Structures are given as C-alpha cells and as structure tokens.
TrEMBL record:
Keywords assigned: Hydrolase, Protease
GO biological process, one term: signal transduction
Coiled-coil residue spans: none
The name this protein goes by in its record: C-terminal processing protease CtpA/Prc
C-alpha cells in the first residue's frame, strides 16, 4: 500500500488488495481526518469481504453492502462495520479492469449507495462469492463459490463489472509521460 497527499486536505491511498488487515492499514493512514480521499483500487484483485465491510464502515453506517445468495433459500445481507468511526471525508475511487472480486464489491457499494464517485474504467466482472475448498480423491483441492454474490441493489456484477461515473482510462502515452488521468479527474471532482 502506498499513500501521499495530493493537495491540501486530499489523501491518496493505493490499495493493491483487500488482504487481512488492509482496512486497518488504510484507516491508520487516514487518522489525520482528511477532507477527501482518493482510493486507488486499480489492479486490486480482491480479498476478504470482511475487509471490504470494515473499510466501508469508515464512510457509512447502517448500510447493506451486498447479498450472499445460496442456491436454495433467502439471500443474506452483508452490512457496513459500524464499529469503525466515520471519517466524514469525500471519497473518489479509481478503478480499472484489474479491479476484481472484493474490489468490485467495494466499488459497487460506493456507486449504488452514493458514498462517492468512481473514476477510471469498468471493473473486471469477476465476483462470484466466497469460495469453499472441496478435497478431491487425488489430494488436490477444488475451490468453488458456496453462494452467489449480488450488489447492494441486488444487481449481478459477475461477468458485467461495475461501471464508472467518469471514464478516465490510463493509456500507454500516459504511462510513458508520467500522467495519471484518473488522479487528475479525481482532483477536479474534489
């Protein structure tokens, strides 16, 4: 994870994955209570749903973040972690096609319940729900989702992705010249 100040009162955090402890690391970087946060989730391959709900708890309380739906029976709602103190900061999230799984879970909540603005490109569309391992006769393990994931508005994200509010792709020229259109757009929105 990397962090820096972009402008007066604007914190930038690049989070590569929702690994165990990621939410607390981000929250530690934000303890100075910035007025706005640019959370860069580009290339974030996902991770723990618990880390997603914990980090979302810094931006909203009492909200449904997603649903886990078994093959038979009712869908179970997942909620923000309301034990996390609210930051009161504006939020812009940078996404791309490398944002998958738990990253898409986070992005869908930001978009669907109006926690902030998404900038970049549509997410990967690779979120199936938490997996469970099944031991096979040859000693190998097969991981399959035990439930289906739906977004906070009960929408399907798997194979579709989460669309952005502002399209700002990273091009080869941007990479070669050190420009970042996502960060530039985020700063205009804040």
């Amino acid at each position: 994870m990397t962090s820096r100040k972009l402008a007066d009162g604007v914190a930038y955090i690049q989070l590569p994955g929702f690994y165990e402890g990621a939410a607390d690391q981000v929250l530690a970087k934000l303890r100075d209570k910035p007025k706005a946060v640019v959370l860069d989730l580009r290339g974030n391959g996902g991770g723990s749903p618990r880390e997603v709900t914990r980090l979302l708890g810094a931006f909203a309380h009492g909200k449904i973040t997603s649903y886990f739906c078994p093959l038979k029976g009712d869908c179970v709602p997942n909620r923000t972690d309301d034990s996390v103190p609210l930051l009161g900061a504006r939020l812009v999230v940078l996404t791309d096609r490398g944002c998958a799984s738990a990253c898409e879970d986070f992005s869908a909540v930001v978009r669907d319940i109006g926690l902030g603005t998404l900038v970049g490109t549509r997410t990967a569309g690779a979120i199936s729900g938490p997996g469970e391992g099944y031991l096979l006769d040859d000693g190998s393990v097969l991981l399959l989702p035990r439930v289906r994931h739906l977004g906070p508005a009960r929408e399907i994200i798997d194979t579709i992705g989460v669309p952005v509010d502002h399209y700002a792709p990273m091009t080869a020229l941007d990479l070669a010249t050190g420009r970042d259109p996502g960060v530039a757009k985020a700063l205009t929105l804040l």
